[in-house]
User: Fold this.
Amino acid sequence: GTRGVTADTSVVERMRITSAGAVGIGNTSPVAQLHIGTGSSSLISGSADELLLDSAGNSGLTIGSGAASIGSIFFADSGSSASGILQYNHTDNALLFGTSGAEKMRITSAGLVGIGTTTPGAELEISKAGSPVLMLTNTSAAQSWVQYVGSNDDFILRDSTDSRTVFRVSGGGDTYFEGGNVGINTTAPLAKLDVRGTLRSDQ
Assistant:
């Protein structure tokens, strides 16, 4: 018949191992390989049923590390013991995120986010060899992206649907807008360049 092993203290069951090998602590019907808490099968996914921590109230998992150490969660497969990485560095209180075995993003103790850099100098810093791109996507219309081209110190706003450059500021070439009128001190320019106020030119 069906058999299991139970562990009792003060005549109250504390742990159970079912005939299927599932371990329940605090419950008699574990729905994961290790189930800590009272819970039910509605809380578990078949693709992630090795460990379940649950409670009728708040629930959590704590990883304790030394004050100058690192707490880690690694995502492994047959080819790597750390394909995905989630780490908290207690030395500088930074939270690190990694893919393919390497850090890709971090949040510093000051709340600065760095992508491609371990020392972000602003709320969001994206660093890449070559020309980093920030893409802004409208799911119901066209996409646009903002790009910095280091070779000419160019700052570009581009429509990705037709690769049209809408706006370009260049440190070594032309600066221009494409399409429409440009207004300075007005939100309704009436000409290609409409300046409301004093215009000064000095050569």
In short: The radius of gyration is 29 Å. The longest strand covers residues 80-89.
